[in-house]
Write a structure and sequence with these properties.
By secondary structure, the chain is an alpha/beta fold. It is built from two helices and eight strands, in the order E-E-E-H-E-E-E-H-E-E.
Length: 146
């Protein structure tokens, strides 16, 4: 699995003109599921993100995780994280098919929730408008295969 995690002041997702999810301080997570990914990847990635310490403590050091700051997470499915850019027109054969990717996307979000984080989300496979106010900016890329 691949995730682009951005620390945000706020983020939201709109689908067909309707607000589908909105958060305050926390993370915007763009999540891609690869063809070879499984349940253990979803759980491990969720745990890594929940434990990521990129919020500032009283000494102005990035030392606090999302739970310590009462943060929230907005998760957006993003198969394009598996783009093959060797040509001008990207291919996406490295991304998992929807019948495999959707359940892993759901498991990832369920694991975040079980770890005590409030989760909002987009809609798997939908055309979405995503807005965010990045804080820092701080952006971390995760890949369970590397």
């Amino acid at each position: 699995m691949r995730a682009v995690v951005t620390r945000v002041k706020s983020a939201s997702v709109t689908i067909d003109g309707r607000m589908n999810g909105s958060i305050g301080k926390g993370y915007l997570v763009l999540l891609g599921v690869g063809a070879d990914d499984g349940e253990s990847d979803a759980v491990r990635l969720a745990e890594k993100i929940v434990n990521l310490r990129v919020f500032r403590d009283e000494n102005d050091k990035m030392n606090l995780d999302i739970a310590r700051v009462g943060g929230e997470i907005l998760v957006i499915s993003q198969f394009t994280l598996y783009a093959d850019t060797s040509s001008r027109r990207p291919g996406f054969t490295g991304a998992a098919r929807p019948d495999k990717a959707a359940p892993l996307y759901e498991l990832f979000m369920r694991t975040l929730t079980e770890k005590g984080v409030h989760v909002e989300h987009g809609e798997f496979g939908a055309d979405m408008d995503v807005e965010s106010i990045n804080q820092g900016p701080v952006t971390i890329i995760f890949d369970t295969r590397g």
